[in-house]
């Protein structure tokens, strides 16, 4: 069986830095006439090593797979099951058993700060040495190359959590996206004249900071402009925070559908209003502002 080129990393977010790594792997694969596999860890290593302290995900494995396949041009995405047993493997064992043995790697491409093996004891120098011993190659790529600055999933999480979605999009190379099923809500939006889709994201996914956002909602293959509220609806004293998207020009039934919600610009923070009429007036202004930001007429 012919070896493959493996792009290796967590790739949470598949941000511009990750894309540089993966596209280098694609280049190496095309040059050699080899298949390219993007290998990503699942679950996040910290969920296994420090349960309860793992970061919220910028991309679930499903979304990550689509971004790597469709956006970066790899031939296959493989999830490496991260568990206690894997965490105890030495760097050499990881290379020989997982990269070469399971994935069939002949060439491995990683970010320049990549660490692996028990207690993250392996670095890119050891990766290169281990691959050379089996007749393979390894390349470490600077992930800051894309914008000439350091790009990290940690930084992007901070931006999204703080509602700074425009800056997050600059580092991601696309708007931040949440995927979720449309479930039944309070139906208050319909009563207010602005029906909303109550989107329930994966509990592991990072939800943007509370506020009102302009963006889009993808329903199957169709894209609709949207004004999306993230929060607890303090005017009605609701306790749980929700993602509620008002699609600007959509009249169908969304219940039970899985949709993608993008967050492109934060319009305002969450706030409590004196009453329903004041809230309705503000929502109308929010929708008008979302249309302006998205370039969509009334």
How would you describe the overall organization of this protein?
The structure is a single chain. The chain has 298 residues and is α/β, with parallel strands linked by helices. The chain has 2 domains: 4-141, Rossmann fold (3-Layer(aba) Sandwich); 167-294, Elongation Factor Tu (Ef-tu), domain 3 (Beta Barrel). 34% of the residues lie in helices and 26% in strands. It is built from 10 helices and 12 strands. It has helices at residues 16-32, 45-49, 61-72, 84-87, 91-102, 124-133, 153-161, 165-172, 188-191, 276-294, and strands at 4-8, 36-42, 76-81, 105-111, 137-141, 176-183, 197-201, 211-219, 222-231, 242-247, 258-263, 265-268. The strands form 2 sheets. Strands 6-7-10-9-8-11 form a 6-stranded antiparallel beta barrel. A hairpin with a 2-residue loop joins strand 8 and strand 9 (222-231). Helix 7 (153-161) runs antiparallel to helix 8. The radius of gyration is 22 Å and the shape is elongated. The protein starts with a strand and ends with a helix. The relative contact order is 0.12. The model has no long low-confidence stretch (mean pLDDT 91).
